[in-house]
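Lab notebook, design round three. We kept the backbone fixed and only want residue identities now. Task for the bench partner: fill in a sequence for the structure below.
Input structure tokens:
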């Protein structure tokens, strides 16, 4: 009888989880994983309210892939700054490959499109024209183009948006320019090169063009006269595939085809036109650089035919990190959130690869539906959407709306009023 009394007293002295003070529960919940938080938030209203607090998600959201929105560039091209808990939920969708796909502008003619995205619009080259479409919460307003830019006689290869202007280079060897707000045709620099202009880049009134004719040219954009003045021509003795100017300083990265025993990656001083660095990584012949991207004033990404993404330190000239495509495919393009995320488009099966810079293995791959044979010629992304340019369509993946209440961290059974 006495043993029964003691056991009853012990049972009354036990403290249940839901009776703990809020600050203690906060500390416990900080150590829980996302799946556990999702299940705990379904237990009672109090747990749900505590788990909805930003302090639970602050550190997780800073470490989140794609959705962290820590960089200014990522904030500027996103529709809105996501709540911290939403950043974690949508990041889980990216990692697990949960998305809704929309396909736009399907056509039979095969192109090699290029796209540029900002907060409100998506610019897309299609043959010898450049089209601008307004973005919306789940993709594009595809019923009509906001702008239709014409001026090239042959296909547009690359273009860039900068300071309310669109500058482009085409297969006709011409450089063209338009006002991005009004669509007014301002610049027509015919015979700028003797062959295809594979890439253009712009920074601080200087336009750099790279061509198949093995030259790069530096042009001064004259706002008053609305014309380009040729500053200098440099023979790199190799076909130029990509150019990328650093917005942080006066440097320009030049990617070439990698033949003739010439390193395929060069750094030039924009102001003086001097080559200040060659990266002497052991490239095989023909391992050309198809795309480059400045991550910071001293760090540069490069990628190309050899299937590697490389991160270079321009202060030392050394490659400080590499990521190898799991299927050894050439990589045509890449994009970054300037924090943790790299996305790259490959040459086969409409495949996009997701990387976390903190890891060496790939996190996820996405295959574009309805066009499994096309390379990914260009891509852009924000926290919720991935825009992919294929040869016969533009595919948009929306990662924001997919929920799985059984495992996601935010089932929202109880909402605050």
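Proposed sequence:
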């Amino acid at each position: 009888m006495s043993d029964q009394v003691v056991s009853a007293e012990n049972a009354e002295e036990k403290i249940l989880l839901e009776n703990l003070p809020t600050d203690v529960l906060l500390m416990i919940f900080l150590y829980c994983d996302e799946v556990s938080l999702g299940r705990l938030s379904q237990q009672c209203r109090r747990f749900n309210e505590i788990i909805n607090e930003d302090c639970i998600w602050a550190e997780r959201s800073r470490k989140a892939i794609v959705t962290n929105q820590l960089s200014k560039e990522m904030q500027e091209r996103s529709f809105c700054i996501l709540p911290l808990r939403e950043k974690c939920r949508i990041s889980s969708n990216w990692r697990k490959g949960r998305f809704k796909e929309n396909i736009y502008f399907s056509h039979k003619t095969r192109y090699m499109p290029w796209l540029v995205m900002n907060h409100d619009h998506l610019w897309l080259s299609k043959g010898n024209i450049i089209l601008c479409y307004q973005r919306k919460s789940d993709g594009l307003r595809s019923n009509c183009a906001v702008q239709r830019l014409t001026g090239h006689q042959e296909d547009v290869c690359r273009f860039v948006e900068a300071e309310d202007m669109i500058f482009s280079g085409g297969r006709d060897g011409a450089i063209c320019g338009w006002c991005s707000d009004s669509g007014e045709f301002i610049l027509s620099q015919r015979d700028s090169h003797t062959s295809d202009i594979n890439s253009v880049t712009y920074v601080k009134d200087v336009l750099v063009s790279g061509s198949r004719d093995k030259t790069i040219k530096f042009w001064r954009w004259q706002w008053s006269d609305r014309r380009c003045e040729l500053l200098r021509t440099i023979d790199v003795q190799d076909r130029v595939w990509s150019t990328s100017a650093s917005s942080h300083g006066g440097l320009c990265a030049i990617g070439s085809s990698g033949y003739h025993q010439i390193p395929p990656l060069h750094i030039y001083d924009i102001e003086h036109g001097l080559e200040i660095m060659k990266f002497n990584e052991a490239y095989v012949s023909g391992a050309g650089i198809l795309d480059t991207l400045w991550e910071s004033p001293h760090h540069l990404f490069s990628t190309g035919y050899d299937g590697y993404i490389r991160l270079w330190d321009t202060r030392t000239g050394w490659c400080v990190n590499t990521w190898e495509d799991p299927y050894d495919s050439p990589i045509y393009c890449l994009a970054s959130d300037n924090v943790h995320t790299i996305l790259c488009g490959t040459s086969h099966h409409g495949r996009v690869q997701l990387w976390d810079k903190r890891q060496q293995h790939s996190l996820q791959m996405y295959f574009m539906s309805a066009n499994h044979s096309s390379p990914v010629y260009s891509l852009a992304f924000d926290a919720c959407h991935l825009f992919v340019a294929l040869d016969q369509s533009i595919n948009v993946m929306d990662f924001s709306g997919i929920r799985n209440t059984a495992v996601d961290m935010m089932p929202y059974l109880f909402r605050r009023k």
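Keep this in mind before ordering anything: Residues 146 and 328 are 39 Å apart (CA to CA).
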